[in-house]
């Protein structure tokens, strides 16, 4: 496939060059500083007390992120039938997360992930099938979890807040979330149909994707990739139920650990005695936040994510200033580390696979 053409590779890798971390960092810091200057005062600082208790729960939050990444790595090993080692899986996941962190949330790192897998030894078709399988499993998690949470929680509480001036905005979230859920459900149906029933239709979708400007130079080779996907789809359809159950469980633990980071951060600074119901509500609101973050035009949702955090999770915190501080801590734990790790790994990876 023409994915090996140097010009095409350089064009794609130029989109994920390490220098791009400047934009999300500047945007995120600018928004957080604005919120902190506007909201933080002496009263806010008195409410936030760093102690050994805080340090313990911050460490737990970091452990949640480790569990998240281990889940992704385990899933990648399962989907490749153990072809990838843990170290190789770690490298790919970090590159994947770095790409997602420096591109708009709606784009993510999926397109470049195919290149990462291909350069680590998989055929393009199999790489495409694995990336689409990860999308299938991610969407399956959301498709199952969101209605379950809606079923067991108070919908009004999920989409309403006591924050002055934001009730109407949050009422509209119900419709926004439903539309987002329907879009995800439609995407999930297309993936399921393409991977397990009609891979030729998925091949057509791949050809359509390769019409995008960033991938257009590879469209001639996309046809061969589509053929490889058809063959890989046959292999995926032969996989036993246990194979998919293991892959989904890895996905489940990864996403669940990701969402629990916020809950743990709030436990680090106990402002009130959170009940189990409130923890589940905080967890559920993060699923809704994820829908909103998908439409963010900024790299990795930078700036937008911090703002949504303060407005949507502010109910569980004593003041807007505390919410802004918690948003900063949340992003320092769950977002910025991938920028730093990616800057360290990506140049070495490019040198190894592209520069002889």
From TrEMBL:
One GO CC annotation: plasma membrane
Membrane topology: Multi-pass membrane protein
Transmembrane segments: 21-38, 50-71, 92-117, 129-153, 173-196, 241-270, 282-300, 320-346
Subcellular location: Cell membrane
InterPro entries: L-PG_synthase/AglD
Predominant place of localization: membrane
Pfam families, A to Z: LPG_synthase_TM
Keywords linked to the UniProt accession: Cell membrane, Membrane, Transmembrane, Transmembrane helix
Full protein name: TIGR00374 family protein
Provenance organism: Labilibaculum antarcticum
């Amino acid at each position: 496939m023409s994915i090996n053409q140097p010009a095409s590779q350089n064009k794609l890798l130029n989109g994920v060059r390490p220098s791009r971390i400047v934009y999300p960092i500047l945007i995120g810091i600018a928004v957080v500083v604005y919120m902190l200057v506007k909201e933080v005062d002496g009263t806010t600082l008195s409410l936030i007390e760093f102690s050994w208790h805080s340090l313990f729960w911050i460490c737990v939050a970091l452990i949640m992120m480790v569990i998240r990444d281990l889940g992704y790595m385990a899933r990648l090993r399962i989907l490749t039938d153990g072809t990838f080692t843990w170290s190789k899986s770690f490298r790919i996941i970090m590159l994947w997360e770095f790409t997602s962190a420096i591109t708009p949330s709606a784009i993510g790192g999926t397109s470049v992930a195919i290149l990462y897998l291909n350069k680590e030894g998989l055929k393009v078709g199999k790489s495409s099938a694995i990336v689409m399988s990860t999308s299938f499993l991610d969407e399956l998690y959301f498709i199952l979890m969101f209605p379950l949470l809606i079923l067991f929680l108070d919908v009004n509480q999920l989409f309403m807040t006591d924050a002055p001036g934001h009730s109407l905005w949050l009422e509209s979230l119900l419709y926004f979330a439903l539309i987002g859920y329907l879009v995800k459900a439609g995407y999930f149906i297309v993936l399921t149909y393409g991977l397990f029933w009609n891979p030729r239709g998925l091949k057509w979708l791949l050809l359509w994707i390769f019409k995008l400007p960033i991938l257009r130079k590879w469209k001639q080779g996309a046809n061969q990739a589509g053929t490889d996907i058809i063959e890989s789809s046959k292999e995926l359809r032969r996989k036993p139920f246990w194979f998919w159950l293991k892959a989904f469980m890895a996905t489940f633990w990864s996403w669940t650990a990701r969402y629990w980071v916020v809950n743990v951060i709030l436990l680090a600074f106990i402002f009130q005695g959170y009940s189990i119901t409130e923890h589940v509500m905080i967890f559920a609101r993060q699923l809704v936040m994820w829908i909103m973050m998908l439409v963010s035009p900024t790299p990795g949702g930078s700036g937008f994510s911090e703002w949504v955090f303060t407005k949507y999770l502010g109910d569980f915190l004593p003041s807007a200033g505390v919410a802004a501080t918690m948003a900063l801590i949340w992003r320092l734990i769950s977002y910025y580390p991938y920028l730093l790790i990616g800057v360290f790994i990506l140049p070495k990876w490019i040198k190894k696979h592209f520069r002889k």
